[in-house]
Amino acid sequence: MKSFPQGPQWIAAKWQQLRQTGSLLWLITLGHTFTHWCPATFYLLLPFLVRELNLSYSQAGFLITVRAVANLAVNVPSGILVDLVGRRGIMMALALAFTGVPYFLVGLSDSYFWVLFFMAFVGVGNYLWHPAAISTLSEKYPEKRGFAIAVHAVGPNVGDGIAPLLVGVLLLYFSWRNVLFLNLIPGLVVAFILWKFLFGKAEVQTATKKGLSFSHYVSGIKSMVRNSHLVMLVFVAGMRSMTQSGLSTFLPIYLSHEVGLSSALVGLYLSVAQTAGMISTPVAGGISDKSGRKRVISTGLVSTSIVLIILAYFQVTWLFIGVLALLGFFLYAIRPVIWAWVLDIGPKDLGGTLVSVFSGSQSIFGSLSPVICGFIADRWGVLAAFYFLAATVLLANFIVLLIPEEKPEGTAAVSKIAEA
Question: Which end of the chain has fewer surrounding CB within 10 Å, N or C?
Answer without folding.
Answer: N
